[in-house]
Write a structure and sequence with these properties.
Layout: E1 11-15, H1 22-35, E2 40-44, H2 50-60, H3 69-93, E3 97-101, H4 104-114, H5 119-129, E4 137-142, H6 145-154, H7 167-183, E5 188-192, H8 197-206, H9 214-220
Parallel strand pairs: 1-3, 1-4, 2-3, 4-5
Helix pairs in contact: 1-8, 2-3, 3-5, 4-5, 4-7
Bound molecules: adenosine-5'-diphosphate and magnesium ion (MG).
Magnesium ion (MG) binds near residues 22, 23 and 101.
Length: about 220
């Protein structure tokens, strides 16, 4: 897939199994970026647009337990297509940073590795749905299934349709994410999300200024790509 000409902004996605800490860390990273004067937008998936939020309701509602795998992929991809068109491309065009709570790797991990759909077919669909827009960096928050499950129980809400899947499904998704990271080490950074929240946040923030992490520190200085 090609990446988009983006001016100064960089597109960062956070990925990982449900309960690994994406939404919490994205919010904290956003606060840190605001304090650091880095103009940015945040997005979540599915959702992030008016149409996407309606699609989100359909996707996560346990009432649709009979949803076909193909319908599921197409609905996630429809939500993502709208997000790229309405939010991500315009933001990158203005030179803003984009922090995304999930992007196309989630479809490869959940519907590809998790449900067993063809990765090649999913990749082609993603390239079409996203107009070829791919994150510059994908931060994979990796933790054990047990840790993720106990963190999910901290949430006040009842488990959604995907969270209700069996542990074996979540195990395939975790391994799928790690495999995606192995296949694309230039884009992926794997973070140990087993650690306490403040430590994971410190690791995340250090990526933006640690000279030992050339990809993100170059991005920070505007020299990348
Ligand atoms: N590293 C961490 N250590 C301890 N608790 C965490 C950590 N990361 C997240 N949590 C907590 O786990 C719960 C689920 O986190 P959340 O950000 O909603 O995960 P996700 O968006 O990946 O599903 C929240 O209550 C959050 O405060
Ligand atoms: Mg979340």
């Amino acid at each position: 897939m090609r990446t988009l000409e983006t001016g100064q902004g960089r597109f960062i996605s956070l990925e990982g199994i449900d309960g690994c800490g994406k939404s919490t860390l994205l919010q904290r990273l956003s606060q840190w970026m605001t304090a650091a004067g880095m103009a940015h937008v945040t997005t979540r998936e599915p959702g992030g647009t008016r149409l996407g939020e309606r699609i989100r309701e359909l996707l996560l509602d346990p009432a649709y337990s009979g949803m076909s795998q193909e319908s599921e992929v197409l609905l996630y991809s429809a939500s993502r297509a709208q997000l790229v068109q309405e939010v991500i491309r315009p933001a990158l065009g203005k030179g803003l940073w984009v922090l995304a709570d999930r992007f196309c790797d989630a479809t490869l991990a959940y519907q590809g590795f998790g449900r067993g759909l063809s990765l090649d077919r999913l990749l082609g669909l993603q390239e079409w749905a996203t107009q070829g827009v791919l994150p510059h960096h994908t931060l994979l928050l990796d933790c054990s299934l047990e840790t993720a499950a106990s963190r999910r129980q901290l949430k006040a809400s009842t488990p959604d349709r995907i969270e209700r899947e069996a542990q074996a499904f979540h195990a395939r998704v975790r391994q799928g994410y790690l495999e995606l990271a192995r296949r694309d080490p230039g884009r992926f950074l794997v973070l140990d999300a087993e650690k306490p929240l403040e430590e994971v946040l410190a690791d995340l923030v250090s990526l933006f200024r640690d000279p030992l992490q050339p990809s993100l520190s170059k991005a920070w200085h505007g020299e990348f790509g």
